[in-house]
Amino acid sequence: MQILDAQKEKSIWPIFRLGFRVFFLGGALLSVIAMAIWAMSLSGIIQLGAIKNPIWWHAHEMIFGFTVAIIAGFILTAVQNWTGIPGVRGWPLAVASLLWFTPRLLMPLIGETHWLVILTDIVWLPLVAIFIALPIIKQKQWRNLFFVPILFMFTVLNALTYFTAITQNWLLSERLFIAAVLLITALIAVMGGRVIPFFTSRATETEKPEPIKLLELIALGGIWFITLLWLLLPHTQVIMKLLAILSLITAAAQLFRMLRWNTLPSLKVPLLWILHIGYLFIPLGLVAFAMAVGWKIVTVSAASHFLTAGALGCVVLGMISRVSLGHSGRPLQPKRITVIAFSIIILAALARSVGPLVLPDNILLIYQSSAGLWVLAYLIFVLIYWPVLTKPRIDGRPG
């Protein structure tokens, strides 16, 4: 950056100097508040104000509030590295984050079917997609442009979930939420395949394995195919059996793919083992999904929490901890309390995914315990990383 750009940078409130700052902090804080409210509503301690369907609200906010905000923050930050063009910052970023925040705040006050909630929640993500697309197109980096249609897919799914809330078609809403979870899983698999082997190779001083094209096709293409089949085709017995078989094949490919990333040496490095353990929940979740749709051994909702509480919860906490340190000019050495948070989120994931299978008579206690552990883990992140994300880089560089 030129000196003039550096001067302009200093005039920007630090939290709006790069996308990871506001969306990592906002997303993590939302997950703490939303999960705490969810746990208290399960216990009958509080009611969710104007929300007509608390289950819909919980699923919607953890997917389209928390998760998609983290995705937006990650890509808005990464696009600067990909293209060499400074990422969106200042008032455009503030506008996007305000549009994200508004429906989160208003929904419990005026309900999930209010036009203002729906409008602001549908608008913010296409705006982020435009911010991402412009530098990629300018640099002709077509490989990374695929994130733009992914964000528009999330926008369409989000809009459709609001339609189900208006029409009270809860069966369709579950189908849409599961499709969004599968789409998120596919995105984690793509990004995980890019960064986890790279991070592991650098930190453990081991050779980065070259991708096997056929394995990548099965592991990644399998999830995309499963997502499309689940979303677009009728849920007949034949389709469900096909989904189950595809899920088992994809799970095996995902496990083999992950084990090639030098998983064992990574267990010595906290910023690595949280990613590897989190990623392990993807093949586990696909097996659970197969058991749900093919043989109804577990419910689809229970299977999906291997991917949400498990893969998503763990991988996100590990990634936002690492990215926040690196992009604030700090060494990649998390504080001890952050490592404890990694352990807590793994316990939360195990409680929510495995717990209902082994202790079906204590479902409410399991839900509350998992939610409490999630709140604790992400609250630690918020408290530890608040100064990291709200203050300038310690090396004086922009960003």
From TrEMBL:
InterPro entries: NnrS (IPR010266). The chain crosses the membrane at residues 20-42, 62-79, 91-110, 116-137, 144-164, 176-193, 214-233, 239-259, 271-293, 305-325, 337-359, 371-389. Signal peptide: none annotated. It comes from the Bacteria. Pfam families: NnrS. Keywords: Membrane, Transmembrane, Transmembrane helix. This is NnrS family protein. It comes from Kangiella sediminilitoris.
